[in-house]
Structure formats: structure tokens, C-alpha cells
Write a structure and sequence with these properties.
Layout lengths: L2 H5 L2 E4 L5 H8 L3 E4 L17 H12 L2 E5 L11 H20 L4 E5 L9 H14 L6 E4 L12 H11 L8 E6 H6 L4 H12 L4 E3 L2 E2 L10 E2 L8 H11 L3 E3 L5 H14 L1
Parallel strand pairs: 1-2, 1-10, 2-3, 3-4, 4-5, 5-6, 6-7, 7-10
Antiparallel strand pairs: 8-9
Helix pairs in contact: 5-6, 6-8, 8-9
Length: about 270
């Protein structure tokens, strides 16, 4: 194993009932999970026995880094009050819960506006959301796979989003999560993804290493296990190497499949 491979922390997205045990089952020291239903506006829940403080202590004792993925329903860019306002509330609730368990960061999707909306309003809504949220830990905005009116799919829109966020108080707590499947499906070349995104954001805090079941530019967000999809293996590995950030595999299956994905990636680093 190369020294570089040993330095890269590679983990997986797991069930939140016992993330520390899930990490051990996968032979890793980094895991990501939801705090509740990702498709619901209900507030977060910590299902670990003993609650948030017990999970925080167990993770620290085991040397496991925790990352939280915010619900998919959050869309703070929306111009619809019935979506944007609950989204802001839910964002703060999950931020508070993630901080309580000692998470290293919380991943949130960039959201979108509709075809009839001015995209600049969505960008400014993000600025307002940053200023309205108490960012107790880093919030990592993730690139998304589809949507012509998405805030974080294409490079030009990501650049405009970052320009808007930079004007907000608290912007130093906003980072970036690069998803390889989303980049591929969104039409972003993996060979230059890290370089171009870092030129815009100045940072990549986390990588979601996922293969894609669909073709380049398809807009389809369908993950598959590493080496079994359409991504070029060398390009995927190059993204991980260049990003030099912790890695989470959001791939299908349980501990056995995740161990295989982690091994696949580590062997190629």
C-alpha cells in the first residue's frame, strides 16, 4: 500500500442506528448517515442508544469521523415560500443535531429553481440562508446530477452560487462535497473536475466516490458499486487522489459490498 493510499480516509454511507458499529463492520474510520427520513420535512432524530452525547463519545473513543447528510427535500434556493421556509428550518435543525453528535460536516444538496424563475433569485436565497443559519459545523454543498435549473450541477452555476455565498456572513463555514456519479451524470468531465471546482470554491472537503449506472450527461442520479458502472476507473481514482479529502462511498449493499468498494478504491490509489 502506498503512503498516499494510507493517508486517504475511505468510508461509506451507513444506517444511523449504530454508526460506530457500522464503521467497524466495514473496517473504516469514516461514515456518513441521515438523521431521520431523507424524504420528509420532519425534524432530525438520533436513533443511537443513549442519544447524541453517547454517539459523540463513542465515535471519539473509536476514532470514527461522522458526517451527516441533510434530507433531500431541503431546497433553500426555491422561490416558493412553502418550500424555502420549511427548508431553512429543517436545515438549522439538522445542523444543530449534526453538531450535537460531533459530526465533521453536514452535506446538503444545492437545490433548484423552476423554469419560470430568475436563477439569480435562487442564488440570493442561498446567501440569505447562509446568513440565517447558525453554522455550528461546516456545511458542505454537494454537486447534483440533474436539472436544468439546479444551483450546483454545472460549473457556471456553481461559480455564480459561490459568488453569492461569498457575500454572506458565515460563508467561511461553507465547503464543497464532490460526487463523482453526479459530476459524470451532470456532464462534468472527471479529468478536470477537481481542478475546476477548486478554482471556484477554493476547497473540496469531502468526496462521494460513486460509480454511475447511466451515461455521461444523462442527468440521472443512479449510483452503483465501484468498477461496475460507466465511470472510467482511472478517472474516478484520479478525482480521489487530486481532491485529497475524506471519501464516502454511497454505493448499494451492506458491509460486505462496502468493504469491497473501499478495497477496490484503496488498491488503485
Amino acid at each position: 500500500m502506498s503512503s498516499q493510499s494510507a493517508l486517504v480516509r475511505i468510508g461509506a454511507h451507513v444506517d444511523q442506528s449504530d454508526p460506530v458499529a457500522q464503521a467497524r463492520a466495514r473496517g473504516t474510520d469514516v461514515v456518513q448517515f441521515f438523521l431521520g427520513d431523507p424524504q420528509d420535512y420532519k425534524g432530525p432524530e438520533v436513533r443511537y442508544a443513549g442519544g447524541a452525547e453517547a454517539l459523540r463519545s463513542a465515535a471519539e473513543e473509536a476514532g470514527v469521523d461522522l458526517y451527516v447528510h441533510a434530507p433531500y427535500v431541503i431546497n433553500v434556493a426555491s422561490t416558493n415560500n412553502r418550500i424555502r421556509i420549511p427548508s431553512r428550518k429543517l436545515l438549522q435543525q439538522h445542523m444543530d443535531a449534526a453538531a450535537a453528535i460531533g459530526a465533521k460536516g453536514m452535506v446538503v444538496h444545492g437545490g433548484h429553481v423552476t423554469a419560470k424563475d430568475d436563477p439569480d433569485k435562487g442564488l440570493d436565497n442561498w446567501r440569505k440562508a447562509i446568513e440565517a443559519t447558525d453554522l455550528k459545523i461546516p456545511m458542505l454543498i454537494e454537486n447534483t446530477a440533474g436539472g436544468d435549473h439546479a444551483m450546483s450541477r454545472r460549473l457556471d452555476r456553481i461559480a455564480a452560487l459561490w459568488e453569492s455565498i461569498a457575500r454572506a456572513d458565515g460563508s467561511e463555514q461553507v465547503g464543497f462535497c464532490l460526487d463523482t456519479c453526479h459530476a459524470w451524470a451532470g456532464g462534468l468531465a472527471l479529468t478536470t473536475a477537481v481542478e475546476k471546482i477548486r478554482a471556484i470554491t477554493g476547497r473540496i472537503d469531502l468526496v462521494h466516490a460513486n460509480d454511475s449506472r447511466d451515461d455521461f450527461g444523462s442527468g440521472a442520479d443512479r449510483h452503483t458499486n465501484l468498477g461496475s458502472g460507466h465511470l472510467d476507473a482511472e478517472e474516478l481514482v484520479a478525482v480521489v487522489r487530486a481532491a485529497a479529502a475524506p471519501v464516502v462511498c454511497e454505493t448499494p449493499g451492506g458491509a460486505e459490498e462496502h468493504r469491497a468498494d473501499i478495497a477496490w478504491l484503496r488498491e488503485r490509489l
